[in-house]
Amino acid sequence: MPMDPKEKQLRALRESLNVSPENVPLRRMVAESLLELKQYDDAEQDAKTALQYDNDDAGRKAVLARVLFRRPRLTSKNAESTKKTKRTVDNSIERN
After folding, report:
1. I need a surface site. Which of 1, 38, 46, 91 has the fewest CB within 10 A?
2. Contact 64/51 with Cβ under 8 angstroms?
């Protein structure tokens, strides 16, 4: 199956980032690509890493804000289900 053009672009950006990990504009582009692909955890991580190199850039802060805004939120019903799952996992760990 052919690769999605956005996935292909992301792969190329990541390869470039491997060569130049402190390239903040490139890291921002990676974060924006991840955001478009709805890979919110990775987008957040790259946006935060970019801010570690340059915390004064409003553009990088805007990328992180967009990631946090677009990330699916837990409803109270989902939050309760998540808490129950966590308790179940914690209990099973304690027993072992």
Report:
1. 1
2. yes
Instruction: List domains and CATH numbers for the chain.
Output: 5-95 (1.25.40.10)
| Calpha distance 53→57 (Å, rounded) | 10
Each residue of 26-53: pLDDT tens digit? 988 999 999 999 998 899 898 888 888 8
Please, what sign has the CA dihedral across residues 7, 8, 13, 18? Answer: positive
Report residue 96 as tokens: 């072992």
Look up the pTM and report it: 0.68
Q: Is 67 helix (H, G, I), strand (E, B) or coil?
A: helix
